[in-house]
Amino acid sequence: MARFRHFLAIDWSGAAGERHKGIALALAHAGGGPPVLVEPGRGWSREDVLAILREDLPPDTLVGLDLGISLPFADCGAFFPGLATSPPDARSLWAMVDEVCADDPHLGATSFVDHTELSAYFRRHGGREGGRFRCDDAGHGRGRFRVTEHAQARQGCKPYSNFNLVGAAQVGKSSLTGMRLLHRLQGALPAWPVDPLPKAGSVLVEIYTSLAALEAQRSAARSKIRTVADLGRALAALGSPPVAGEGAIDDHSSDALLAAAWLRKVADDPARWYPRTLTSEIARTEGWTFGAV
Q: Phi-psi region for residue 71, left (φ > 0), alpha (ψ -120 to 50) or beta?
């Protein structure tokens, strides 16, 4: 019997403000059929998503959240090396982000990246790269990577450091705002692998929609889908019926729809839950991207 009955993919946004075109939710059912957008055009807030995850999930839902659930730790032995208050694990990091940003509305994270000490670890707009943005042994100029981001790169993705806040592909702001959400979900919804996979019930995982696109026979350079016809072909590659409609589709919606179908296809594959380089220490500190093997 399949472990999950529903598959909810969430394309997230770390942008300022209350409601965001960049947030899209799509749901697929284990019984089949095309994935469907949840209230398309609503203009979701991060608080809206939090309320659904806490109070209104269908039973036995695998939730995929498109952001980084933690920051690099293994490369330097700390999230913020040299900082006396650097948290020891992911849960403590979530609590720290939420505390520092307590006065930021809409689960924002501006106070964290503008913090006097913490800003030194981020690359920010205006050419402001903190002196601790890089790790000496990173081997590239893109900033610090988690172990899971190295696994993503081996699979053909082009990951970005969660300490990078610059550029259209940056995931730093999304990740930090998501950590506030994760902190508030503790006790309500397990977040794998920081929390162990429960034998029953719903669970949340970090996803990277480019992994879904690669398995749908798209290249990393063509991971964004902007027509319903292209989305139909990608869904077919995952064994899913197409969505209705024709013409253009925004890439936030297509990312969520494709990821929901992908979660349904791969959720019962043990290799996704037990990647070879995921250790208990990495799970506790850095977390992992579901599907990075």
A: beta
Q: Which residues pair with 203 in a beta bridge?
A: 62
Tokens of 280: 């208990």
- Residue 66's DSSP bridge partners are 11
Distance CA 157, CA 81 (A): 27
Q: Return the half-sphere exposure (C-beta side, CA atoms, 13 A cut-off) of residue 81.
A: 15
What digits encode the pLDDT tens for the residues 7-39?
Answer: 999 999 999 999 999 999 999 999 999 999 999
**Distance of alpha carbon 169 from alpha carbon 193, whole angstroms:** 24
Q: The pTM is what?
A: 0.95
**Among 218, 197, 193, 171, which residue's Cα sits nearest to residue 66?**
171
Question: Distance (Å, rounded) from C-alpha 41 to C-alpha 165?
Answer: 27
CA-based end-to-end distance of the chain:
24
State pLDDT tens for residues 85-118. Answer: 999 999 999 999 999 999 999 999 999 999 999 9
Q: Are strands 19-20 and 44-45 parallel, antiparallel or unpaired?
A: antiparallel
Q: What angle do CA 94, 100, 103 make, to 5 degrees?
A: 115
Question: In terms of Cα–Cα distance, which of 27, 34, 32, 33 is closest to 11?
Answer: 27
Q: What are phi and psi of 36, to 5 degrees?
A: -130, 145
The tokens describing 92, both together, are 């403590």
**15 and 178 in contact (C-beta within 8 Å)?**
no
- d(CA 64, CA 209) in angstroms, rounded, equals 9
